[in-house]
Structures are given as structure tokens and as C-alpha cells.
DNA sequence: ATGACCATGTATCATGGA
């Protein structure tokens, strides 16, 4: 089973090339972020004609997450239970929850498509929201892992955090701004502390997943690595290959992010004598 | 060529993105 995560930066603006990519790359299930539309605006037909069913959570022109899959999707869940809300100029507990998380189960594998809040600037309320959002998600994930330790689980999406200095082209450009701050990196590392691992980086140590549209960032390869697939131990055991589809940043009307893809082997029976590879 | 932001709606600017 081939699984992908892709921040498409508007599914309506890119439906043709996204569907072409799904078919050409033989993707079975993809978590999308920043679909930027409500359900009544989603281009269902283009995906269905290519053999993909759609589950989505979209509330407005901002954010929005989805799964497209040619395998059956079960147990669809929009937002995670403890997900914090946010609304500009509002404080307190009654803030609406944004469309930033959707979960589905495919072939027994639990998958979440996540669009982590950007944070904007270190002194912006959105930054505190981002840290809270990640902390609540980590606590939620601890519960899921405790409930179902043997179920393969992956959290994938646009994490809006560059965990390593080498995940941005020039750290000095980001100092004092979001994505590289110590609290954001600690919030990201928390997921590894509770037992998830980045299943892509061991196979692909190099490579960005995002390049700003501005200032020739892509031709100059001035990018960021902020899109990740974090898997439980049971998920990591299934992964046989990983890829970052850098070429999707080329051509007409690309997203500013590119897809991150993993192959899972759901056939092999694991046994206790299996040698450790990593 | 991979080339000097892009997408959306409130629309001829404001907002968000990272």
C-alpha cells in the first residue's frame, strides 16, 4: 500500500495535477492539507473518475484537510477530541476548532492528515495556539498508543516545524521567527518521546518539502523540511520505502509543498526472530 | 529551464501562508 501526505495549497486550484500525480505515482491513499474549501466546493468528480473516494473536513477558505483513497476508508474522525480552538481576537474556551485534522483507517492502518497551525510570529497568539495544539495532539496520541499498541498508526502532514537546523536553507533567516524555535522543536520531539518515529528521514536524510513562491526559492533550492510522516512502532515495521516527490514543485501552478510518500508491506507476517534493521 | 508569490473572498484590497 502506497501512502502519501501532500499540502496542496488549494485543491480547486490544482485538482488536475493532483489527480494526475495520484494516478501516475500509483498512490493508494493520500492525506491532503490546505484544501481551502468547504465540502460543497470540493472537486469530487475528478477524484472519483480516477478511482478515489474522498473524506474531508473543510469549514472555510482557510485550512481544510482530506483523505483521498482507492481503498475503503473506515472510522472517519474530524478533529481530534482535545483539539484546541482558535479565532482571531477571541480568548477563552469557546473558540471554534479549525479544520486541521482528519483521521481514517485503511487496511487496518490508522492515518491522520494534519495541518499544524503556522504560529505566525513568536509574540502572536497563534504561536501559543500552535504549541498548545501540538501538546494536545501528543497527549491524545499517547492515549491512542495505550489503547491500541499493536495497531499501525501514522500522523502525517504539514507540521510547520523544522526540527533540525539543516531543515532550513539558512538558519539565520529564521532566528527570532517561527518553525525553528526551541519550544516548537520540543513540541515536535515530544512525539518521538512517546514512541513515534519519522519513517522517512532514515531513508532520505536530505531534502526539503517546501519552497516559498517568492524570491526564486525553488530554483535556488532555498527550502524547508516541514512535512513529515511519524509512525508508531507497528507502522514503522511495515515501511519498505520512502520518497519526497520534489518534481511536483516544477511545472505549471504547483503547490509550494511537495508530496511525501511511503510504501507499506501489509503482506509479510512479522515474527519474533525477524532481524532488526534499524 | 525549476525563474523573481499565490489563493481566496469580503474583491480592485485584506488576509494568511512560513
Automatic annotation (TrEMBL):
Annotated active site residues, numbered on this chain, are 115, 158, 257
* Cofactors (names): Mn(2+); Mg(2+)
Cofactor: how and how many bound: Probably binds two magnesium or manganese ions per subunit.
Key word Manganese present? yes
Q: Which GO terms describe its biological process?
A: DNA repair
Domain Endonuclease/exonuclease/phosphatase residues, every copy: 4-257
- Is Iron set as a keyword in this record? no
Keywords of this entry? Hydrolase, Magnesium, Manganese, Metal-binding
Could you tell me the EC number(s) of this protein? 3.1.11.2
Sites annotated Important for catalytic activity: 227
* Entry binding sites for Mg(2+): 7, 34, 158, 160, 256-257
Stated name of the protein: Exodeoxyribonuclease III protein XthA
